[in-house]
Amino acid sequence: MVALADAWLYTTDGPTDQPPQPSPTPVPSPIPTPSPLPPSPLPTPSPSPSPSPTPRPPGDLTFDDVNNWDWFYDAVRHVYERGVMVGDWPGGHFNPHRSLNRAETTAILFRMENGGGWSPPSATTHFWDVIPGSGSYWARDYIAWAETRDIVQGVGGGRFAPNESLTREQLAAMMYRFAVSRGYSVLVPPQVSAPPGTSNWAREYMRWARHNGFTGEGNPQFPATRAETAFFIHQFDHLYNR
What we know:
The chain is built from six helices and no strands. It is an all-alpha fold.
């Protein structure tokens, strides 16, 4: 959505002042003997400019490839804390720059609605390429759930193409339909245009995504990365007060 070994440095400071010791046999000199100096004869170094702050550990995140200075850090933390995207297992990685496939996205959408601790009921789907041995059969129930909610419509010819990378405009389409299924407003001012390169079928979805700041200006037909998907969901949840 294996913990990152956060390396913390702990120091143990012992007492710095010892109780006074009884004086030995008096010596003729009235001047008290000074306490012995530390053994190192090196002088105190001149102060140097303050170094850059050490990056803080990534809070509750357990991913070793997401840092707090990354543009997608807040988005990843948001989806992780909600159990919507929990990372790639095993290894403790989020893989922010890896693309999602279409089957994975249906699981993410289901968790958005139902929380990370739930699984959909067993169901069948009408897509003929979601079958045992296809490598995506684990997602059959998620795909069937999304199909019954009219969130996904396939790619034509009765195919869902579960293992194909999800494009940015396909992500916008699924999120748009998810919003409609939840009763959210998807109205967009008429003057808002779709980003250049948008497919004709996806223009309304990309206008909505662009208007609400869910997506950048990248090519809509390129695959959506996990970081971009987390950002889309984070902005979506903020807009609709989820």
